[in-house]
Design brief:
The chain is α/β, with parallel strands linked by helices. Helices cover about 40% and strands about 15% of the residues. The protein has two domains: about 1-150 and about 295-359, 3-Layer(aba) Sandwich (Isopropylmalate Dehydrogenase), CATH 3.40.718.10; about 160-280, Isopropylmalate Dehydrogenase. α10 crosses α11 (about 345-359).
Length: about 350
């Protein structure tokens, strides 16, 4: 990560479900004052709920800095935009309509500021996908909401850790629908999004992508299903024809069990659990969920609301902290990529002058 002195990235943070561990991981993250040297956090939430979390968890040394809007965000403080002064009915570990409604309001307000350029990136604390459903939110999760708000047709849920990146062709859908949702065109589209993200968001010059099969043993040459031969292999071949270094299809069990994943920059799974089960087994405490293919940058920890440990001071902030690191890195990588793409010769000349100056 480059020196943060030049620009403290403005990180918008949604509260998520206030009956879960969202506020706990936010407070634990920014009790480390070194985090405030890297970014300017702006939390969108309910101040009474945050205050109750702080008192219950005995984090009295931590303070939010209240502001009315993102333009007033203060450096070296954990800024807080209060959405309401009413008593929202905090109830640790419980899925309640109020918690879902205020999670949505937090997300909507943060998204407005992100699209208006008042914050640079968005990091979302987890919410309950059932309690957020209603007139203002009718999406399977954050990813689909963000795609709709940004008019993005081609996007990808990408799970990221230091050494492993996993995307999925299909998202939050019943397993019985997966095969019917796969097509050569859809897989190719997701591979294009993944490849572009690896280039611009992660700074990988020639990314190598492994593609998993759908069936056990990747179909065993057609003995266990035909999706590999009829859909997946044609998509890989077309991707190769378009300059994307895609390989496979690989049998998921042997691919992860043998450590073959270490030879690739990213892995494309066909469905949710095929990719996320091994990912979370390898990188659960440090994994990050990133929505690739959007014009905006959004990350989140790769865990849920943590109802079972809410209010018990047991939640680890590691994944949430990694989500912030990842968002900052992607923000800077995109700026560098855009700069080089717009005028590569000028960038090269400037870097040569900088090298000569420091020689």
């Amino acid at each position: 990560m480059s020196d943060g002195a030049e620009h403290l990235v403005r990180v918008g943070i949604t509260q998520g479900d206030f009956n879960g561990i969202g506020y706990e991981i936010i407070m634990k993250t920014f009790m480390d004052h070194g985090m405030l040297e890297l970014c300017t956090p702006i939390v969108y939430g309910v101040h009474k709920a945050a205050t109750q979390h702080r008192k219950f968890l005995e984090k009295n040394e931590f303070n939010f800095f209240g502001i009315h809007d993102a333009t007033k965000a203060a450096k070296h403080h954990c800024n807080f935009i209060n959405l309401t002064d009413i008593d929202v009915g905090l109830d640790f570990g419980k899925a309640t309509p109020a918690a879902g409604a205020w999670a949505v309001k937090s997300l909507q307000r943060a998204m407005e500021d992100l699209q208006a350029g008042l914050i640079d990136v968005l990091v979302t604390a987890p919410f309950n996908k059932s309690t957020v459903q209603g007139p203002d939110f009718n999406f399977p999760g954050h990813t689909e909401f963000l795609a709709e708000r940004t008019n993005s047709k081609d996007f990808l849920m990408l799970l990221v850790s230091e050494n492993l990146r996993v995307g999925t062709v299909t998202g939050h859908v019943p397993i019985q629908q997966v095969a019917g949702l796969l097509s050569t065109e859809k897989i190719l589209s997701k591979l294009k999004v993944m490849n572009q993200s690896l280039l611009q968001d992660f700074g990988i010059r020639k990314p190598r992508i492994a593609v998993l099969g759908l069936n056990p043993h990747a179909g065993d040459s057609g003995l266990i299903g035909n999706e590999e031969n009829q859909i997946i292999i044609p998509a890989i071949n077309q991707a190769n024809n378009e300059g994307i270094l895609a390989f496979g299809p690989y049998s998921a069990d042997g691919f992860f069990g043998s450590g073959t994943w270490k030879k690739f920059d990213a892995v494309m799974a066909m469905y949710h659990d095929q990719g996320l089960v091994p990912f979370k087994s390898i990188a659960f405490h440090h994994g990050v969920n990133f929505t690739a293919g959007l014009p905006v940058i959004r990350t989140s920890p790769d865990h849920g609301t943590g109802y079972d440990i809410a209010g018990k001071d047991l939640a680890s902030p590691d994944s949430f902290r990694e989500a912030i690191y990842t968002a900052i890195d992607i923000f800077r990588n995109r700026k560098q990529y855009q700069e080089m793409s717009s005028n590569p010769l000028q960038v090269m000349q400037r870097r040569e002058r900088e090298r000569d100056r420091h020689a």
